[in-house]
Amino acid sequence: MEKQNAIAALAALAQETRLDIFRLLVRAGREGVTAGTLADALAVPSATLSFHLKELRSAGVAHCRREGRERIYSPNFDAMNELLRFLTENCCGGVASGDV
Length: 100
Fold this sequence. Notes:
This protein is α+β, with helices and mostly antiparallel strands. The chain contains five helices and three strands.
């Protein structure tokens, strides 16, 4: 992962509403959840939710697909796994984390 991509992902998640949205997406899994369900669960106005979902998608940590008239949002687990690898690639000075 490029440093700029990591910064974008971390910045997107470093906001309370977006972090709450992402955590709900993770709970929903790859199947995803509708924007309406997210709005109801978080009591967030649709315009505000749209803004935050756009930020999560732009940062690459969320996906969106259309099913009929609904937009289904899901977490981008591949991107998050890549981010975790990037953040921990030099962990523990080369010593396996279980050995510390």
